[in-house]
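Hi there,

I know you've been waiting on this one. I reran it after we fixed the sequence typo, so this is the corrected version. Both the input and the resulting structure follow.
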Amino acid sequence: MTLKGKKNETLEVHASPIRSRSENTSANRAPSHDDIRRRAYEIHLEQGGLSGRELADWLQAEAELGIARDSS
Protein backbone atom coordinates (compact mmCIF):
# COMPACT_ATOMS: atom_id res chain seq x y z
CA MET A 1 0.00 0.00 0.00
CA THR A 2 1.39 3.37 -1.00
CA LEU A 3 0.13 6.79 -0.10
CA LYS A 4 -0.36 9.13 -2.99
CA GLY A 5 0.63 12.75 -2.58
CA LYS A 6 3.03 12.05 0.29
CA LYS A 7 6.61 13.10 -0.21
CA ASN A 8 9.49 11.10 1.07
CA GLU A 9 10.94 13.23 3.79
CA THR A 10 14.25 12.81 5.45
CA LEU A 11 14.37 14.04 8.99
CA GLU A 12 17.63 15.57 9.99
CA VAL A 13 18.68 15.25 13.55
CA HIS A 14 20.40 18.35 14.83
CA ALA A 15 22.53 17.63 17.82
CA SER A 16 22.41 20.33 20.40
CA PRO A 17 24.88 20.39 23.25
CA ILE A 18 23.32 19.59 26.58
CA ARG A 19 24.80 21.44 29.50
CA SER A 20 24.79 20.04 32.95
CA ARG A 21 23.17 22.11 35.66
CA SER A 22 26.48 22.42 37.43
CA GLU A 23 28.20 24.00 34.43
CA ASN A 24 28.92 27.67 35.03
CA THR A 25 27.54 29.74 32.18
CA SER A 26 28.03 33.10 33.88
CA ALA A 27 30.99 33.87 31.62
CA ASN A 28 28.65 33.67 28.62
CA ARG A 29 26.15 36.30 29.75
CA ALA A 30 25.96 39.67 31.39
CA PRO A 31 24.90 39.72 35.03
CA SER A 32 21.17 40.15 35.48
CA HIS A 33 19.43 42.67 37.71
CA ASP A 34 18.88 39.86 40.22
CA ASP A 35 22.59 38.96 40.17
CA ILE A 36 23.48 42.56 41.01
CA ARG A 37 20.77 42.75 43.65
CA ARG A 38 22.00 39.60 45.37
CA ARG A 39 25.62 40.78 45.39
CA ALA A 40 24.62 44.23 46.66
CA TYR A 41 22.74 42.57 49.51
CA GLU A 42 25.78 40.41 50.32
CA ILE A 43 27.91 43.56 50.42
CA HIS A 44 25.29 45.20 52.65
CA LEU A 45 25.53 42.30 55.09
CA GLU A 46 29.35 42.28 54.95
CA GLN A 47 29.33 45.98 55.90
CA GLY A 48 27.28 45.21 59.00
CA GLY A 49 23.86 45.95 57.52
CA LEU A 50 24.28 49.70 57.80
CA SER A 51 21.54 51.71 56.13
CA GLY A 52 22.31 54.65 53.89
CA ARG A 53 24.84 52.78 51.72
CA GLU A 54 22.40 51.30 49.23
CA LEU A 55 23.75 53.14 46.21
CA ALA A 56 27.37 52.50 47.14
CA ASP A 57 26.63 48.80 47.67
CA TRP A 58 24.82 48.60 44.33
CA LEU A 59 27.65 50.32 42.47
CA GLN A 60 30.21 48.09 44.13
CA ALA A 61 28.21 45.02 43.11
CA GLU A 62 28.08 46.26 39.51
CA ALA A 63 31.82 46.87 39.53
CA GLU A 64 32.56 43.43 40.94
CA LEU A 65 30.30 41.75 38.40
CA GLY A 66 31.87 43.66 35.52
CA ILE A 67 29.07 46.06 34.60
CA ALA A 68 30.42 48.92 32.54
CA ARG A 69 28.80 52.26 33.36
CA ASP A 70 28.46 55.14 30.93
CA SER A 71 29.93 58.28 32.48
CA SER A 72 27.55 60.63 30.62
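Quick highlight: Residues 19-25 have pLDDT under 50 and may be disordered.

Best,
R. S.
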